[in-house]
Amino acid sequence: MMTFTERLAERVLGGMRPACVGFDPRLDALPGTLAAGASAAERIVAFAREVLPAIARTVPAFKPNIAFFECHGAAGFDAYETVCRLARDAGLLVIGDVKRGDIGSTARAYAEIHCAIADAVTVHPYLGRDGVDPFLEFARSKGCGVFVLVRTSNPSATEFQDLVVGDGETLADAVASAVTGWGRELVDRFGYSAVGAVVGATWPTELRHLRSRLPQAWLLLPGVGAQGGRIEDLAAAFDARGLGALVSQSRGVLQCFSPTDRDWLDRVESALAAFVAGFAALSPPRCPPT
Amino acid sequence: MMTFTERLAERVLGGMRPACVGFDPRLDALPGTLAAGASAAERIVAFAREVLPAIARTVPAFKPNIAFFECHGAAGFDAYETVCRLARDAGLLVIGDVKRGDIGSTARAYAEIHCAIADAVTVHPYLGRDGVDPFLEFARSKGCGVFVLVRTSNPSATEFQDLVVGDGETLADAVASAVTGWGRELVDRFGYSAVGAVVGATWPTELRHLRSRLPQAWLLLPGVGAQGGRIEDLAAAFDARGLGALVSQSRGVLQCFSPTDRDWLDRVESALAAFVAGFAALSPPRCPPT
């Protein structure tokens, strides 16, 4: 069984940039001419069908946020499953950005469906290990990847995540240390664990520091582009092989056009090319963690 | 517009016990004879149709956990909407136990659907105010209730929630104080805010302490019964009118039978009666918060 992290590492070592395209399909940001008159869920799937080939040619990973599907009810959930399947069929590694977090049998119910639909998922840490354990079981048995929220990209991330919990350590630091512990038994042949961490690309200083607390974790770095994060500030997240971090951009790629633009797909392809070109700023120096 | 908290207060002041029945429909715990051969989603809806009349006669509130629906995909999501609608039609106040937590437009997408399906929802605090704000907008405009996870009922709740963040204050305390601030502008005519808190009934000592930090919050108290919480230990959560807390029991009511029991509905009705009878232990003394 090839795990999520092994497949990701192989693609990066094979020459792909460690880039992930986020898919947050807001209806008011879809191309106006695409599947006009169809249902919301149908329009989202139609959009995915158009953009997935270009995405799969350019980057190894795809991160749909389920909220933008779920808000359309059951048809939206069905569209989420369809889009994930289409993306996997296109060769992409799919990270289900579901941010689930519950306990015991409830967490298991979430893990069962979301580790089946996607190759990896995002989860909340607030409930402690009980909330993560069922996902670790799927990491062990199915090779699923798990990204725990550690330092999120939003402005109010500081509200709780920066609270000092002793010895100058923040809550985010404590969660990072726990993530390292949770993932210790699940390390792949590249030295990385199935248990990764979400760290906002909007916090390069914290990123360098958290990298040292998370020596075996893949870091999922959202917040590049519209939220202000810049690829050139993220060098410390990568090891000398270029592994260990995956930079995610959403709006900057798939909302780079106006709904009225007739050439929207050309614009998406240009934005994809610009996204991966941005990684040139990292090499050299693609530094090992400090 | 009557808000969620006002409707809840009126029912309790009208004589109903501040009790909530949690609905965690695990397939292996459903009555074996009910809708045998039907799909998972259909079996769950059939079970809800059978138990909702008795629940609505006995308690004011109903808390379905969406994980046990979502694990069946789109059909499960559809069943969740159906069960919530049936419960509201039966006169119950529905708390959607969705534990969502994301930011910005993503959180808004979650709030749009979940505040439409249910009367109140549960949310994660880890992302700070950005993740809660869109729900507050629905509290303001639609009277939706919002329960923020503060001190959860599970054993590993202590892992992060008990970390000391300064001045002897724990992370749960800090989240509680934030909840009080977030809800300050949304206080109803009974003195309670639309922004409540989830505090596990498994932690009576912490409950007394958190009550003082959350003077205007309805406390949702899960964990009675199977998880070990006891109603008689929860007196400190209520004010002198008997308002301010809602005790939730799930497995002890709706999983009180074996799938082979032919008299399962009688057993559920007996368990419901025992649940509300348990509140007699609270009065007197139904103490105001200390």
Please explain how this structure is put together.
- The first copy, chain A, is α/β, with parallel strands linked by helices and 290 residues long.
- Chain A contains eleven helices and ten strands.
- Chain A has helices spanning 4-13, 40-58, 67-70, 73-89, 104-117, 129-142, 158-161, 171-182, 204-213, 251-254, 264-277, and strands spanning 19-23, 61-64, 93-100, 120-123, 145-151, 164-166, 169-170, 195-199, 219-221, 245-249.
- In chain A, the strands form two sheets. An eight-stranded parallel barrel of chain A has the order 1-2-3-4-5-8-9-10, surrounded by seven helices. The first copy, chain A, has a two-stranded antiparallel ribbon with strand order 6-7.
- In chain A, helix 2 (40-58) links the parallel strand 1 (19-23) and strand 2.
- In chain A, helix 2 runs parallel beside helix 4 (73-89), helix 2 crosses helix 11 (264-277) and helix 5 (104-117) packs parallel to helix 6 (129-142).
- The two termini of chain A are 32 Å apart.
- The model of chain A is unreliable at 285-290 (pLDDT under 50).
- The interface between A and B is large, with 55 and 55 residues.
The helix/strand series of chain A, from N terminus to C terminus, equals HEHEHHEHEHEHEEHEHEEHH
Tell me the distance between the termini of chain A. Answer: 32 Å
Q: What is the count of DSSP helices of chain A, taking H or I runs of 4+ residues?
A: 11
Order of strands across the biggest sheet of chain A? Answer: 1-2-3-4-5-8-9-10
For the largest interface, the chains and their residue counts are:
A-B, 55 and 55 residues
Q: Which percent band covers the strand fraction of chain A?
A: 15-25%
Main beta-sheet annotation of chain A? 8 strands, parallel, barrel
| Extended strand count of chain A | 10
- What's the quaternary structure here? homodimer
Percent range for helical residues of chain A? 40-55%
Overall structural class of chain A, as computed from helix and strand content, comes to alpha/beta
Shape call of chain A: globular
What's the pLDDT, averaged over the residues of chain A? Answer: 95
